[in-house]
Amino acid sequence: MICNQVSRLHHWKRVAVWIGLFSLFSLSTGCQSWLDRKNNEEDNKFKEETKRIKEQLQDPNRPRLIGEVAGVTGVVSRYYDSIGLVSSLPNTGGKVRPSMQRDLMLAEMRVRGIESPEVVLDAPWTALTKVRVYSFPCYEDNQQVDVVVETSSECDATDLTGGVLFEAKLREVATLGGKVKTSGDKAVAKGEIVILPESYTKKPKEPRNGIVIGGGRLLQSHNIGLQMTPEYKHVYVVREIVKSLNDRFFFNDQSRQRMVAEGKSDSRIVITTIPKYKWDPSHFADVVVATGFAETKDEQMERLIGCEKLLKDRTTVRRAAAELEALGTPEAIEVLLQGLSSIDTEIRFYSAYSLAYLGRKESVTALTEIAKNTPAFRPLCLTGLTINEQESARDALERLLQEPEPELRFGAFLAIRNRDASDPRVQGEKLTPGVELQQIPSSTPLLAVSLQSKPELLFFGNSAPIMLHSQINPTSAISITPVLGDQLKLNKRLSEEVASVIVPADTLSLLRGLGTIGASYNEFVHSIDQLNTMKCSSVPIAMNPRPMAGRIYKRDQDDSEDATASVLSVDGATRPKEESSWWYVPDWFKRSSFVKKDKNAKASGSASETVNAIKEPIPYEPTASDLNSNDLPDIDWNEIR
């Protein structure tokens, strides 16, 4: 009996096992069948899309340029924010009211091991500030940038003069979905604060605001990219665009050749900036979108003929020149060379600018002439002379150093250094560890004071007398007093003692004397500014005379009239709105708006003949990943965590 029961139990166990195995086999077979069906459907859909795309690209009226199937991303500026602590103030700091900012700073001070953080934060020699740096397209990681410092509204500090910013870590901050979001560390900032003089800002002095010149360092690069439009979102199109860009553009990086384009998905391409294009990201974007793709030689020649017509019209010359530069063939270069003989300034400029990027020496004469006579194009002319590796471009910049216009002289010096930072002719004299003096031989004297990128002074020509009749105090710590025998006594009050030196009463001796007593760059700036305001200097003084971007070129007028142009407009899509700002942000702009068009001008007939050659890039609406970099809202500092 027992044996029979055991036998039946084993029987039913075997039955249960077989049933389970059969069910599992059926289920797995069914799942596999479902997966196969899904994969087959996706494969068929992909094949259909590939067939559609290939047929479209074989159509005679198909898009020819990258800008017709993709938009450029990453062309907006970004800014990174933080709160910071400024120290070394001469009793002009103040207490910080209870707030989120106070709590954040106290927490940071405790992390850094600062003893008695609450006492330090409320001390009269410290101030709580807001800190910001800007990152612009094609900026590289570890690039130095200027730092904007503004006293917090929660702090009672009255003046940041003499202050030093402790190291602050900056992040990207945005309000998304009603909540404040922050990124990881994007930049670090520290250094001596400079209060901009009224002679430069043309506004009342704001001692609660300042900058740290070159005191920021970016922690990541800022590249541009391409985003495919929905109609052309396909790996086949991405592959063709990547191939076209990499066939045309490449560069050597540490003895290895690098390509510029890399496809990341069926809709996105990352672009690595070619070194010579980093000085003008807008132009780089223009050339990228003006590059053809999936073309035959006959199709390229057809576009070339269209560009030859468009180059002769001022309203279409910019796009035509970019397209010819993107082609880069001997035939395209020949067309651009024809543009140099035009009587129209715009046509000559765009032709010469593209030829400079193609390394042609013929561009040098035109760029030099336009830089002298047309301020609206001056910054880009100097850029063209910077990136052109021809020795004649270097010689032209040397000659511009002797021009009477401060902008030309200062801009030419920067261009020479940008060409080769190791050039011994641009290695300055160290007045202090953080301040350099550049002395440039010239028959026309000038003292130029930098207020961007690097704390340095450019002195053109020979030293000249300073005619000071009474003591002046450029800052609370500095005094300059005339003494007998045409000399000056310079004093700097330190915490418990006074540094003093007597120097001859001339410009170079004064600058070197300020270095001897350990003056900060802010004290250099305000000493020079006060001597200039009181007309004590026999040498002309120019505050930050960089060629300014954003001037408008007015068509149908003599170039001489353009000399009075001022900074009238800046494209808000490429840098933050700063109309009410007390600080000029770095000069990077989108040139599509700097030519003032004649309202009565008629459309060019040639434009309708070759539409494919002049289509503008498709406007790109930022995706969620781009929101942090596109016109961020004002930040509620009390909500930052």
Description of the structure:
It is built from 17 helices and 23 strands. The chain has about 650 residues and is α+β, with helices and mostly antiparallel strands. It has a six-stranded antiparallel beta barrel. The longest helix is centred in the first third of the chain and has 57 residues, at about 1-60. The protein is flat and about 95 Å long. Strand 18 and strand 19 form a beta hairpin. It has three domains: about 80-225 and about 635-640, no CATH class; about 230-420, Leucine-rich Repeat Variant; about 425-545, no CATH class.
Chart the SSEs and their pairings:
Layout: H1 2-58, E1 70-73, E2 78-87, H2 100-111, H3 117-121, E3 127-135, E4 144-151, E5 164-176, E6 179-192, H4 198-201, E7 209-218, E8 224-228, H5 235-248, E9 250-253, E10 256-259, E11 261-263, E12 268-271, H6 281-289, H7 297-310, H8 317-327, H9 330-339, H10 345-357, H11 363-373, H12 378-387, H13 391-400, H14 406-419, E13 429-432, E14 435-440, E15 446-449, E16 456-460, E17 472-475, E18 478-483, E19 487-493, E20 498-504, H15 507-516, H16 521-533, E21 541-543, E22 553-554, E23 595-596, H17 605-609
